[in-house]
Amino acid sequence: MQFICFSELAYREILQHHADARAARRGSLWVTAAAFALAASLWAAAALARAVLVPVRALREGAARLAGGELSHRVRAAGGDELSELAAAFNAMAEEIEKDRAAIRELAIRDGLTGLLNRREFLERLREELLRSRRYAHPCALLLLDIDRFKAINDTWGHPAGDEVLRAVAARIRDSVRPTDKVARYGGEEFAVLLPETALEAAVMLAERLRAAIAACAVAVAPGHTLTPTASIGVAAFPEDAGTDEALIELADRALYAAKQGGRDRVAAASSLPTSDRTNDL
After folding, report:
1. C-beta separation of 169 from 147 below 8 A
2. Cα 273 to Cα 268: distance, rounded to the nearest angstrom
């Protein structure tokens, strides 16, 4: 009888042990499942954060670079969500700002009447070209051109007629030079032409062609009235005549004065000036 009771107790204990083991396994499974769910949630949250934060960081960096003057910078726009649309809008805005800045820059360096370079920009291009010519031992030349008796044109036909003459002369000069040459309205009725990689002889030949082209230009100044302007041109070359931009301008100006004094509608080279005129104050 005691044996039977002991066996029954042992059996019950075994059953309880198995029940506890099953419960422990179920608990372990629940813990594992919960841990897996938590890990999946954390991964999804991290992926979502990356999907949001990376584009936002790129937009923030793009805005900072745009504000710093890097107008060519663009933000990568991938996908089709709201952030990619925002990136596309940012890029469109940056492109418009870049175009506007280029247009403003162009206006700042151009003469409003003729569309040629203005004096300030021309002087900068001249300095740059002389540095390049000196570095590579290349020649270059400068022409200074002045419309003859321009004051009389204004006084006789009025300033609108004078403006038409200026535009016509500017167009003749522009059409007569190479794309690499730089043409400017230097001031009033005076123009300047920079000829890179051009020696004195070739510069004088071009100046003669310019003079002839201007003299062949008929400008309508009033209904039924046209006039033909003429121009005097001074030529100076680097390195034959001068080694600095200031000296080159001064010699071209003296050559221009000599052309005026010689009767107008002509070309004078600095090399043909008297020695005293070429060296005084240079």
Report:
1. yes
2. 8
- Please identify every residue annotated as catalytic: 189
* Cα-Cα end-to-end distance for the chain: 138
Alpha-carbon separation of residue 61 from 70, 72, 76, 112 (angstroms): 11, 13, 11, 38
Angle at 234 between CA 156 and CA 176, to 5 degrees: 80
Architecture of domain 119-279: 2-Layer Sandwich (3.30)
User: Tokens in use for 125?
Assistant: 């291009």
CA distance 257 to 211: 15
Phi and psi at 14, nearest 5°, equal -65, -45
Q: How far apart are CA 55 and CA 74, in angstroms?
A: 12
pLDDT, tens digit, for every residue of 210-260? 999 999 999 999 899 999 999 999 999 999 999 999 999 999 999 999 999
Domains in the chain: boundaries? 2-103, 119-279
Quickly list DSSP for 140-198.
EEEEEEEETTHHHHHHHH-HHHHHHHHHHHHHHHHHHS-TTSEEEEEETTEEEEEEET-
**Which residues is 236 bridged to in the sheet?**
142
Structure tokens at 98: 């870049």
Residues counted in the chain: 282
Q: Which residues contact 258 (CB under 8 A, 6 or more apart)?
A: 234, 268, 272, 273, 277
Please give the average per-residue pLDDT across 35-62, as a whole number: 57
Q: Which helix (H) or strand (E) holds 267?
A: strand 267-269
What's the whole-model pTM score? 0.71
Who's near 77: CB < 8 A, 6+ residues apart?
A: 84, 85, 87, 88, 91
Judged against a pLDDT cut of 90, whether residue 187 lies above it is answered with yes
